[in-house]
Amino acid sequence: MAIESLQALCTAMDQVALQTWRRLEDSRLPGRRFDETSITDSNLDAMRRRVPGLLIWQSSQSNERETGADWEWWIGDDNEGWLSLRMQAKRAYEDDTYAQLRHGGADGDSFQYDTLIRGCDADKGYYPFHVFYNGWPKGYFHPGTHWAVPAQWNACPNMRSYVECGHAEPRHYGCAIASSHDVKHLCDAQDPSRYSIVNLLSRAVPWSYAFGFPPPKMNQEHRWDSRIDRGNWLDRIHGTLVVLSERGGASGARDAAGHLHQIPLDRGKRTFDLPTYVQSMRRTAPGFFEPSTEGEVPAAQHTVIVERPPKRKRAPRR
Ligand SMILES: [Zn+2]
Questions:
Q1: 44 CA to middle of ligand 1, Å?
Q2: Which of 140, 152, 165, 260 could bond 160 through an S-S bridge, CB–CB 3.0 to 4.6 Å?
Q3: What angle, 0 to 180 degrees and rounded to 10, lies between the N-to-C axes of helices 6-26 and 36-50?
Q4: Is 48 inside any structural domain?
Q5: Domain encompassing residue 98
Q6: What is the pTM for the complete model shown?
């Protein structure tokens, strides 16, 4: 089953980001607390309700410890191949860091991000990302804004600042992504501010941007219109992931926003044989998935499939 529109997916991701912001902002009130798991669960639930054709499975068993992934996205189709995003979620803490980035890794890896990176392979279309859950009151970092000043604002392809940008506002960073390679680079440095929100947000963009940056247009700035569904959007997403993870990160992708669909790509660097658990999931209804063999144990607790709709055939001319 394919999604009906990429525009609906990106719009839903933005709505979920705003909702995450609100929940984390509220969690600073006494007696409230949300951890990454409960945020991830409710976010995926909201996405399922808002995006027709989006398929989501949850499993009680997973190889999460071995992969370091909280959830896995599969994007593509059987003809053009599949891309996989493996994501690790970290929430912002009141000490202005993503404190859980200190979490140790599996099998001799120093950190959990090392485990996540080791399990991915760009030659097969597997990309590691961190998603940061953010939310704090307006004026917390800087008067009059929600933005974590002085973090670099990468959400504007027109290079405008967080004050002038019409593509996004700071709360769209409620769910923000950064390449795990960039996260590792920052966290491995012996810098006392290595886990700080300001430091890491400078390498991040709103998570909907993984599916394509809004196009630069000087006069009118808006986010997702129906044109995002045109053309081969799998190529555009692939190009975006390549730039975000290997060629310049968030600021590089912002600079290349107008031609992310033209990034030179090796379309062979995708997965054409889906793992056993994904094949088994596709034969069952989305929802709860109970693995019956070892090979059916998923890489992460949550698996999301974003399938490209089949190309519409043009009506024959008469
Ligand atoms: Zn802008």
A1: 27
A2: 165
A3: 150
A4: yes
A5: 6-307
A6: 0.95
